[in-house]
Amino acid sequence: MDDFHGVVRQVVKRTLYVTVFLGVLWLLFDPWKSIFAGLTIGSAVSLYFAVSLARQTEMATAVALGQKKKKPIVAMVSRIAMIALGVMAIHRLGYPSIWSFLVGLYTHQVILFVGMILGRGKGN
């Protein structure tokens, strides 16, 4: 379980760094403001997804080990609500690209995949 927590911590931390970096690019590069705005908002929603998925996995593990009773999980509903919130933010701002928002939603998954590929090369 410690390996899981270490991976989750690294993915959340790196996703946060990418989100902040994209936010800085959003502020600095005016010609591509629309693209970086969508990527930043999508990456922020992706950060929420990473934390939510980790929490949901911990709850499922506790139920599987018999430590807790099964509780109703509304994770899918909350993820859909976060996507809707991101789309509403894009609509409210008026200029972010919806396509870059959709690409930004995959930020934590790409970070996890790259971490797995690079981790295998080190013998982990």
TrEMBL record:
One of its GO terms (cellular component) is plasma membrane. Signal peptide: none annotated. Its main location: membrane. It comes from the Bacteria. The chain crosses the membrane at residues 12-29, 35-53, 73-91, 97-118. It is found in: Cell membrane. Pfam families: ATP-synt_I (PF03899). It is a multi-pass membrane protein. Keywords: Cell membrane, Membrane, Transmembrane, Transmembrane helix. This is ATP synthase subunit I.
